[in-house]
Amino acid sequence: MAARKDSDKIALVSKSGGGSATNRMYVLTQEQKEEIGRMAGYLTITQIAHKFGINIDTFNDIRKRDAEVDRLYLQGHAN
User: Fold this and answer.
1) CA–CA gap between residue 79 and residue 77 (Å, rounded)
2) Who has greater pLDDT, 21 or 70?
3) Separation of alpha carbons 17 and 8, rounded Å
4) In this structure, what is the dihedral angle of CA atoms 48, 52, 55, 59, given to the nearest 10 degrees?
5) Where are the beta strands (DSSP E) in 19-74?
6) Does the N terminus or the C terminus of the chain have fewer Cβ atoms within 10 A?
7) How many Cα neighbours within 13 Å face the side chain of 35?
8) Spatial distance between the Cα atoms of 77 and 40, rounded to a whole number of angstroms
9) Region label for 76, one of left (φ > 0), alpha (ψ between -120 and 50) or beta (otherwise)
């Protein structure tokens, strides 16, 4: 697998301007969402999370929060 570039990382943003860890969440770009759909057909969920520099629990949290990410992952995984 190719080395991860900084542009591959998912942005960590504050939900309401605060800086505490409980008040931040990861946000995917549309390009990253589409890439998840493509990668799901040949990478494990752990490998996808690693590619974006996050752990699997964080990736699953993103899937729960963002229906589009979950849909793209499931579609790619089914192919």
Assistant:
1) 6
2) 70
3) 24
4) -70
5) 24-27
6) N
7) 14
8) 5
9) alpha
Calpha distance 55→48 (Å, rounded): 9
Q: Taking all residues of the chain, what is their mean pLDDT, rounded to a whole number?
A: 81
Q: Could you tell me how far CA 70 lies from the centroid of its own chain?
A: 10
Is 48 exposed, middle or buried (CB count within 10 Å of its CB: 0-12, 13-18, 19+)? buried
Query: Phi/psi of residue 10, each to 5°?
Result: -85, 135
Distance of CA 28 to the CA centre of its chain: 6
pLDDT computed for residue 59 by the predictor: 94
Name the 3-class secondary structure at 15.
coil
pLDDT in tens, 31-60: 999 999 999 999 999 999 999 989 999 999
